[in-house]
Amino acid sequence: MSKPALDRSQIVQCLSRIQDPYTAQPLGAKQLKSFAADDSHLHVVLELAYPAQRFGKGLAMLVAAQFEALFAGKITVDIEWQVTRQPVANQSAAMPNVKNIIAVASGKGGVGKSTTAVNLALAMAQEGARVGILDADIYGPSQGMMLGIPVGTKPETIDNKWFVPIKAHGIQAMSMAFLVNDKTPMVWRGPMVSGALQQLLTQTQWDDIDYLVVDMPPGTGDIQLTFAQKVPATGAVIVTTPQDIALLDAKKGIEMFRKVNIPVLGVVENMALHICSNCGHAEHIFGEGGGSRLAEEYGVSTLASMPLDIHIREQADGGAPTVVADPDSEVALQYLMMARQVMANVSLLNEGKTTIPTITVSDD
Ligand SMILES: Nc1ncnc2c1ncn2[C@@H]1O[C@H](COP(=O)(O)OP(=O)(O)OP(=O)(O)O)[C@@H](O)[C@H]1O
Asked: What positions does the entry give for ATP binding (predicted)?
């Protein structure tokens, strides 16, 4: 029989000295799942509200070090997680197998929205999340190519009603590109597009997903607005380059989500800095700090500032985006940190924490 050497309040107090770097909240009773202590061994099990397969190892070391002041014997800390579900009644009814939907959008085309979406999805999976990606970028679907899914691959169907998503690099993928052929006209009218996309969303048999990343069609017109209205998203990630024109369109994107009451989880500034592969010279090709200024103006987080890096393009074009092609590279780590921030922000939203400010800008 182990004799209790420490009580729960001592453990909780010790935990409260450590701040979760992604939620910016102190650890405490909520995260303490269990503990066992005798004279020689303290075993603490924490449970986070977002996956932490890679990040959890560092956090466990930090927590163990904190307990050294309290306990002289062997200390073991395990980090587990339980992803919370978006508390929206109609979502669980419509998509019982999907806990959270994250819309990735940009005001302007070509800013790297799809590349960011796929690396976000893969980075979430690396942290242990069950992830799906829906390519809703109907006019330029590229997720299949970036995930290395051979052209012409068709999803299986069940009962002539359900599509089975295609698995690639450990995530589940579905795209309009899997259902059309080269001859299908992509110059669809708005209602056809939003109808097809909604069908794709609700008639795919996702296999128990924590986060479904939706690569939205670029722009802020009627199609996007209708779709944003129909997708019961937990939150949106806005991708922009630091260029004035892209920022202006990104603002429209933020305002579009505001109109349909979808919280903005943060802004990703893409192609922020170019480092010459020959001489190492760093240059802000599209201007400096625009994404952060935009995030500040709207009171949302800057999730990442990604460099303009030839490997990002080459690896995505090659069917293995940076997060899987070169998982220990600096760029992959940046994507990983972005993913953790997105998942932590989702957990805060689901808990009803007000850490993510509501957007208060005028309509004009
Ligand atoms: N950070 C980056 N560094 C280098 N190349 C990048 C980066 N981000 C994206 N790219 C490249 O830029 C091009 C456009 O990216 P992507 O297709 O992701 O943009 P998008 O915003 O989704 O475009 P669209 O509006 O056409 O769907 C691609 O060739 C991609 O590989």
From this structure: 107-114
pTM, two decimal places: 0.91
Q: Let me know: does 90 contact 232? Beta carbons within 8 Å.
A: yes
**CA angle centred on 232, ends 294 and 115, rounded to 5°:** 50
Residue 360 lies in a domain: no
The strand pairing partners of 34, in sequence order, are: 45
Tell me, what's the pLDDT at 160? 85
Q: Are residues 52 and 137 in the same domain?
A: no
**Of all protein residues, whose CA lies closest to atom 28 belonging to ligand 1?**
313
What is the count of structural domains for the chain?
2
Please report, for the domain that includes residue 56, its CATH number.
3.30.300.130
Which residues does ligand 1 sit against, CB inside 6 Å? 106, 109-115, 137, 140, 142, 218, 270-271, 306, 308-309, 312-313, 316
What pLDDT does 30 receive? 95
CATH number, domain of 197, equals 3.40.50.300
Tokens in use for 305?
């500032």
Degrees to nearest 5, angle at CA 326 with 238 and 147: 60
Q: For residue 28, what pLDDT is reported?
A: 95
User: How does DSSP assign 128-140, residue by residue?
Assistant: T--EEEEE--TTS
Model confidence pLDDT, tens digit, residues 251-301: 888 988 888 888 999 999 999 888 787 887 878 877 777 778 888 888 888
Question: Which residue stretches of the chain have pLDDT < 50?
Answer: 1-3, 89-90, 92, 354-364
ipTM of the complex: 0.98
Nearest CA to ligand 1 atom 26: 110
For the CA of 310, the closest atom of ligand 1 is 4
Q: What angle do CA 330, 335, 340 make, to 5 degrees?
A: 120
**335: CA distance to ligand 1 center in Å?**
15
- Is residue 110 marked as binding? yes
Question: In the listed set 49, 81, 113, which residue is the last one of a domain according to the structure?
Answer: 81
Is the same domain home to 12 and 137? no
Q: 111 labelled as ligand-binding?
A: yes
Give residue 182's pLDDT.
61
For a pocket test of ligand 1, which of 106, 108, 224, 313 has the largest count of ligand atoms closer than 8 A to its C-beta?
313
Same domain assignment for residues 34 and 182: no
Task: Flag whether 30 is marked binding.
Answer: no
Ligand 1 pocket test: pick from 106, 115, 273, 286 the residue with the most ligand atoms within 8 Å of its Cβ.
115
Considering the domain architecture, whether residues 238 and 335 belong to the same structural domain is answered as yes
Q: Cα–Cα distance between 124 and 130 in angstroms, integer? A: 8
